[in-house]
Design a protein that fits this description.
By secondary structure, the protein is α/β, with parallel strands linked by helices. It contains five helices and seven strands.
Length: about 170
Amino acid sequence: MNELYSFFWVIWAVGIFLIFAYGFVLFFGAPYFPSLKPHIKAALDLLNLKEGELVYDLGCGDGRFLKAAASKGITAVGYELNPFLFLYCWVTTRRYRRLIKVRLGNLWQADISKADAVFVFLLEKYMPRLDEKLKSEGRKGLKLASHTFKIPGRKIAAKKYGVFLYRY
């Protein structure tokens, strides 16, 4: 009976830990929901980056966008707050380590001043804040590809398959 009691508390603790690891990110951007291949292709097509240019994926999740960018010779930096997703992303992008850097951290703390482009899949309520960050920290000519969510009041330069392109 004592073993069953201990097992119950271990399962309970693991559950609470996983809820915390995946749930707390809602306060900073978005829960993990992977971008599908058509959305990634649409974002890369819209951004029209050349080999050697730099793109940031703010909330990179499992690294799908980073790997797709690197396969085209594009340098990519990903920020992920969830430690499990960060570790998974870091491991699965090692093949492209010359082109991909993955950072464990809050996307709002990311230094985007050198970025040519940014890709995001954030919740709608964070889009105005992202707009301010890009206007104040991004360089002239910065491009944003936003999966699903629009920036209120900002003109969309182009759209494809649910991905919106903005220019700064």
